[in-house]
Design a protein that fits this description.
Helix content: over 70%
Shape: globular
Distance between the termini: 25 Å
Radius of gyration: 13 Å
Number of helices: 5
Largest sheet: none
Length: 83
């Protein structure tokens, strides 16, 4: 739920992980700056930076890496169609 991803509460670990992945994809695929990402998600630049580093570390898991690659392709395709 988008509401949970933009929430300032930290009580939902699933929402936090989804938010971090969305921040990561926003930077990698959409080329948004850390400041833009922080603003879009109701966070600050340093939180966005932490999210990017955290997801990069998580990519060591082959299954998660495969999922992220699929999401990157999907987002690139969708973003390309919107342009």
């Amino acid at each position: 739920d988008v509401k949970h991803m933009r929430s300032s509460k930290r009580s939902n670990p699933r929402a936090a992980l989804a938010r971090q992945i969305a921040m990561y994809l926003s930077h990698i695929v959409l080329k948004l700056s850390l400041t833009e990402i922080g603003t879009a998600f109701g966070r600050n630049r340093s939180t966005a930076c932490h999210a990017l580093h955290h997801v990069e570390e998580m990519r060591e898991d082959p299954e998660l890496d495969r999922t992220l690659r699929q999401l990157e392709v999907l987002l690139r395709t969708t973003a390309g169609e919107a342009a």
